[in-house]
Amino acid sequence: MSQTATLRVRVIDLETAGSSPSDVCEVGWQDVEQQTDGTWQVSAGSRGARFVDPGRPISPGTMAIHHILDEWVQGAGYWRDVAPAVLRPDGAVSALAAHRASFEQRFCTPDLTGSADWICTWKCALRLWPDLPRFSNQMLRYLRRPEGLDHDKGLPAHRALPDAYVTAHHLRDMLNTVSLEQLLEWSREPGLLPRVPSGAHRGQPWSCLSDTVLATLARDRDIDIRFSAATEIGRRGGQASVGSGKPAQPTLL
């Protein structure tokens, strides 16, 4: 790129051998940079991936997802040793980003990131493109066909660098639509689902539901459903509490 970047957001994608904090077996990153004219671009050179030793064997079921073999990661360095250089690079970043960032945040803890802010591109996609039928990283790739996304660089799916590369193109388009601050604000809240994701009212917009149904859904165990129902209640002039709980993202739209 001929222009000098002024701000940088680093997209992170992890492949893991399990759910414990040290179970990372691959990390990929792809930077998105703001140019001097104010636009954001996917960096041509600030990207990479490396294997990480999870310290235990990878199960066959997990290998069937990302196809990473034990012999590839043995001796590659443990996550706590590998993470700082990736998550806190020279030159600093304005934020970290991931698609369904709550997963990456389980492993990229504040002590490893320096308490960096996070953008969740899944939550932001719900806000910016609510008319789309699905919101997974790969579905957004084919529903939207982001400009400049090299098909081969985005493969294979379920590997850290290709997935980060795809996410970065969604993030670039988001940053060229709304501000970085707006994406951070949306990412701090639960997901605002455009439609009811499951149950008897699956697929219906919140605006079509009765007050009684909304009141029930505002007490759902899924925080994204609670938040979405409460938002519609608030739009109608009522009040509803979203309730407490970790803002997990269990519903795949």
From TrEMBL:
Q: Does the keyword Transcription apply?
A: no
Q: Which GO terms describe its molecular function?
A: exonuclease activity; nucleic acid binding
Record's superkingdom?
Bacteria
Q: What is its EC number?
A: 3.1.11.-
Q: Which GO terms describe its biological process?
A: DNA metabolic process
Q: Where is the Exonuclease domain?
A: 8-180
Q: Which SUPFAM superfamilies match?
A: Ribonuclease H-like (SSF53098)
Which InterPro entries does the UniProt entry name for this protein?
A: Ribonucl_H (IPR013520), RNaseH-like_sf (IPR012337), RNaseH_sf (IPR036397)
Q: Give the matching SMART domains.
A: EXOIII
What is the protein name stated in its UniProt record? Exodeoxyribonuclease X
Q: Which UniProt keywords apply?
A: Hydrolase
Would I find Transport among this entry's keywords?
A: no
Q: Which species does this protein come from?
A: Brevundimonas halotolerans
